[in-house]
Amino acid sequence: MARLAVLASGSGSNFEAIAESFTRSTHEISCLICDRKDAFAFKRAEKYGITAHYVSYYKRERVEAEKEIASILEENRSDLIALAGFMHLLTHELIDRFPGRIINIHPSLLPEYPGTHGIQESFESGDTELGITIHRIDYGLDTGPVIMQKSFLRSGDETLDEIESQIHELEHQSYPAVLLEILDSI
User: Fold this and answer.
1) pTM, rounded to two decimals
2) Do 108 and 133 meet the contact criterion of CB atoms below 8 Å apart?
3) Distance CA 162, CA 165 (A)
4) What ranges in 31-149 are assigned the alpha helix state H?
5) Residue 90 neighbours by CB under 8 Å, 6+ apart
6) Rounded to an integer, what distance in angstroms lies between the CA atom of residue 51 and that of residue 29?
7) Would you tell me which of 79, 94, 118, 127 could form a disulfide with 107, CB atoms 3.0–4.6 Å apart?
8) Per-residue pLDDT tens over the stretch 57-105
9) Mind listing the pLDDT tens digit for each residue in 5-29?
10) Which domains are seen in the chain, by residue range?
11) Cα–Cα nearest to 171, from 5, 11, 1
């Protein structure tokens, strides 16, 4: 059995998809770490009985906040860390402390449309193929080694909400499966 920590910032829909998949697994979620006190992800963690921690970045240096995060990750003996809508670039210090063990999901087919507006930029691009990327974290913005990409073709008639829904469906199906596969190899 291996242990996964999840870092989130918002509603936690990817976190819940992960938590649900772990109910049918030998692995466990060691903790949720969230940087927004009012994030709905906390309610989702409570629903699954997962320990949740609030770590504020507000008026703090990133390095200071991430020292607290690293301490929580180590206290909870986390083997792998999944970013699930965590809206901060990680410092070299945190990445180096957990080399190759931090995974991210991004709502575009990287290297296209990195950053916080991947869905919007993909939608506006006119690209016929849209999708998601699961990758390891490195020092860049969504530049780490790709683990998997999944995509779909769009007709061009979809609304932004419909595209966003399709992206989230791919995320919720693919991310938990990839994380479990990585944990199986630990």
Assistant:
1) 0.95
2) yes
3) 5
4) 41-47, 62-75, 92-97, 118-125
5) 62, 66, 102, 137
6) 9
7) 118
8) 999 999 999 999 999 999 999 999 999 999 999 999 999 999 999 999 9
9) 999 999 999 999 999 999 999 999 9
10) 3-184 (3.40.50.170)
11) 11
